[in-house]
Amino acid sequence: DVKVTQSSRYLVKRTGEKVFLECVQDMDHENMFWYRQDPGLGLRLIYFSYDVKMKEKGDIPEGYSVSREKKERFSLILESASTNQTSMYLCASSRGFVNSYNEQFFGPGTRLTVL
Amino acid sequence: TQLLEQSPQFLSIQEGENLTVYCNSSSVFSSLQWYRQEPGEGPVLLVTVVTGGEVKKLKRLTFQFGDARKDSSLHITAAQPGDTGLYLCAGFVTDKLIFGTGTRLQVFP
């Protein structure tokens, strides 16, 4: 069974704090993704990575950065959290060359509240 | 940014009823996927459709990809409480999945 785990299910932070969200997958997948999920907006891609030390901007990268030092781990960083970053954050991974047949495997999500 | 609009946004029905969820866009996609997300979990892939006009069946769920590859539908026959969840369509463009706005389905016993 593919397993994608996220470091926290719930997180409460204050405006201006630096926030780290960690994601680990155990199936040796090449590709990893960070999404945020908001009601009525579906999932929006923040950043993705095809390989170690590689990153690509998604549709909404502003205010976020990522790090992929090891193949199994992909971290999302909020340099200075703001209230509009309150959301559900989902990590996903997939195998091989990214194409239309790939299945993405998702973690359970981290619900982040920024006060 | 391509948009995938789903309708309806919410659906509340009794066990045994049939329903259809729609996923529409003005963009053409090379393939389209449907995911279901249950409370407290991440989305899980149900099906991938890749050919215009393609129909796939998964037990009581029927998925169709539009002829022009711009839209898709999910039909559930005789819905059961276990079908409750958030249904998301996702279209594949180049190297990214674009997710739809979601349809939240509640099936009451």
What are the salient characteristics of this protein?
heterodimer, A: 115 residues, mainly beta, Immunoglobulin-like, seven-stranded mixed sheet, four-stranded antiparallel sheet, 11 strands, 0% helix, B: 109 residues, five-stranded antiparallel sheet, globular
Count of individual beta strands of chain B: 11
Q: Kindly report the name of the CATH homologous superfamily of chain A.
A: Immunoglobulins
Helix content, binned percent of chain B: under 10%
Q: What characteristic shape of chain A results from the CA principal axes?
A: globular
CATH topology of chain B: Immunoglobulin-like
Q: Are there runs of chain B of 5+ residues with pLDDT below 50, and where? A: none
Tell me which oligomeric state these chains represent: heterodimer
Radius of gyration of chain B: 13 Å
CATH top-level class of chain B: Mainly Beta
Give start-end ranges of low-pLDDT stretches of chain A.
none
Distance between the termini of chain B: 40 Å
Largest interface: A-B, 26 and 25 residues
Strand-residue proportion of chain A: over 45%
CATH-defined topology of chain A:
Immunoglobulin-like
Average per-residue pLDDT of chain A, rounded, comes to 92
